[in-house]
Structure formats: structure tokens, C-alpha cells
Amino acid sequence: MAAAPLWTAADFLAATGGEASGDLPDVTGISIDTRTLEKGDAFFAILGDRFDGHDFAKAALEKGASCAVVVDSRAAEFSDAGCVIGVANVLRALEDVGKAARARSSARVIGVTGSVGKTGTKEALKLVLAPSGETYASAASHNNHWGVPLSLSRFPRSADFGIFEMGMNAPGEIGPLSRMVRPHISIITTVEPVHIEFFKSVEAIADAKAEIFEGTEPGGTVLLNRDNLQYKRLAAAAKERGLTVVGFGEHGLAEIKLLNSVCEPGYSAVTASIMGDEVTYKIGAPGRHLVQNSLAVMGAVKLAGGDLARAGMAYGQLHAPKGRGERTLIGEIDHTALLIDESYNANPASMRAAIANLALTPVQAGGRRIAVLGDMLELGDSSRDLHAQVAKEINRVGLDLVFACGSNMAALYEALPPERQGGYAGAAEDLKDSVVGAVRPGDAVMVKGSLGSRMGPIVEALKTRHGVLDEAS
Question: How far apart are CA 81 and CA 59, in angstroms?
């Protein structure tokens, strides 16, 4: 028996609020990118910062899209290629489809935001809720003004659980997203000076994160980091809206309390009280930050009606993804080095966490723990000071060698003692050869920086030059 379509033709057309020309079949998926479009997808011709989706609408139809959603003034341009739905505003139509998907769903919906750990928490929830029922989660980091409605529009009616990530760069961005998602359970992982360039203070960042409460369903629950300095401010904002507050962390008053944890090179072991239920579980990746966020994950599982025991068993299958802690052995058999890829993003909190993880990572005889660091972006006037402060953590844990690139990372590099200075360059491209030449068998090397600092090519250069042996545990 064939699976039910994501949208029947009639329901999809009604959700867009548009007018169709040509025969509209049922819709099996939603796309805004012809490179990943599959046959049966509805293609939305979004106007982006760099591209106009209308330039690809005809190609989408030729590739097998069920229809193309375009502005009504241009619908006639594509009608000879297939079914076209004309709307007043394509992004607004995508939002309307997302809202319709949320309205028809009977799933328990969880919203996730925070300065650090949004995507990891969302992916962990997807993993550990799966044994309890059909679980849907937004793809990749689709957490902005187009990513959230796109994720919602793909939300299947049959799902038992829905997990949606919400991000922001400035005030006023999370509120509209939350009102679309309408979570029953909202998680704020933590509040740190991330994107501080666009805010007056960390308190202002907390207020922006608190916008997730605007869409949280009446009578809903929010999970807040009880160990974070902004807890009281966030809790007060949630309670003003009549929401139930549940704290997680090591704090004595946390309803979800960490009782014990052990972080080993390849995993983390946790014992915690989840609102009165004591559970022990293993996380299949190392890191104190993963332990902290796992408390929120397990709390959300309980609040959503999932099975805690099965969730704990599933947590052992968690592995860090590419750019977010993925571990790879490079080199040759018996002559390997460990590469830790943290190149997707960076801020002061995640940088300290990655450095702490590297310090715990074992090295072979004669091996060194090497950090390759690029600029942390969007930190405003405090950027150089925040970079320099990270040097204290490097010195405290005793990393052996540091390579750095970027104008702000110079402040960190200069704060290191000479014996820890491996090399500095103004840009990642100019640092690449030095790093590739320095790494030798037995080393553990971690590469981290904001996406805009372009540290990813250094990771790929290390793999190409030394060869990939196998994925490390």
C-alpha cells in the first residue's frame, strides 16, 4: 500500500491561498532548491538574498516537481512547463502552508532555541524520541525566517512528535517563528554572548530568546538551564505568560538534576533525576555540554509522553556530525592522527567546550593536542577581549600547540606562551599548509571557527594530505 501523500492536491492549494493553472497532483514533498528537489515536490520560488527562485522554476517543473509556487504576476511565464500556483507573496504562501501543517497535526511539538547547542539538542531529541513513536525534526539548521516555515510545511500529519529549531541574529526574530511552531514544550539550552554585536547586553539576548514563549501553547512547559545566569530573567518571562517552568542542571533546585557524569574520550555517562525518575544513560559522544543539554532532552521526552528507558538506550547511538565534533582517523594503519571537525560554528561558550573536549582526548605516545582556531564572528566591540579570554582556558587545560587565523583570533594567539604558538595567519587559506605540515602520527587535532572564517577547507586539506583511515568513535 502506497504511503499517503504529504499533501493532497486540494489541501495544498487551499493552504497556499493561490490559484492553480494546469493539473495539480498530490504533493509528496516541499522544495526551495532544484539541486535537492525530488519528483513530486512542490517548488517554492523564494526570493533570497543571492538568488531569485523564479530563475529556477522552469527547471524544477522539468525535473518533475508537482507544481511551482510563484508570484501571480509571473505565473504565465511557466505555465507551459507544468502546473503553476500563483500567489501574492511566495514566502508568505510557504508560511501559510507551514501553519496549515501545524494546525492539522496532533503531535506533541517541541521548540528549541538557545545561544549554543540548538541543532545538537534537536538532533538528540529526534534520535531518542524515535523509539516512542513517529518523530519528525527540521532538517539541518533550518531555523530562520524561511527555514522554519519550510520545515513546518514538510511536517507529516502522521507524526507523533515534532521538533523544530528556532534561531536568531537580532531581536524580534524568534517570536514570529514560535507563533508558527506553537510548541507544547519549549527549550532554551543556554544564553551566552553570541551575536552580541547586535545586542546591548547578554540580558538583551535572553529577552530575544524568551520570544519563544510568545508562541508556546497555553499551559505549556519551558525547560530552562538552571545553572545559567539568565535563568531568573527567563523564568519570570515564562511565568508572566502562564507557562510552567522546569529547570535543568546541577543546581540544587533543578527539577531535572544532574546527579553524576563521566566524560570519556568516546562517550559520556550520565545519571540524572528527571522530575523524580532516576535514570542512567550513555551518550555516544564526549562533552560536558552534551551532558548538560541531555538533561533538557530527557526532560522533554518525559513531558512529551515518551519512554525514558528507551530514550536512554537510544542516546548511546548519538554521534557528532560533520562540523560539530565529528571524529576521523587520518593517516595510515599504526600511524594515525585523530581529526576533530568543529568547523561549522564558534562562539566563546562552544569554543571553551571544544577545548575542554580536546584536553580529555587521549593521544598516542609522543602525540600532541593541537587546536586550529579561526575567528568567532558577530561579537561586536568585545570581540578581541572575548578571543583573548579563551587563551586562559587553553593554558589551564594545557593544550600543546595552537594555530590561529583571523584578525580577532590574533588577540588569543598573542596571549599564549611562545611554546604553545604553532603559527598564525590572517586567513584560514594562508594557515592551511602550516597546519597540514605540522600534524604527525599520534596527534589529536581540533579545527574550530565560525562558518564565515572558513575553517572547513583546513579539515578537508588534512584529510586529503594524510588520508582518511576510518571514522573514529
Answer: 9
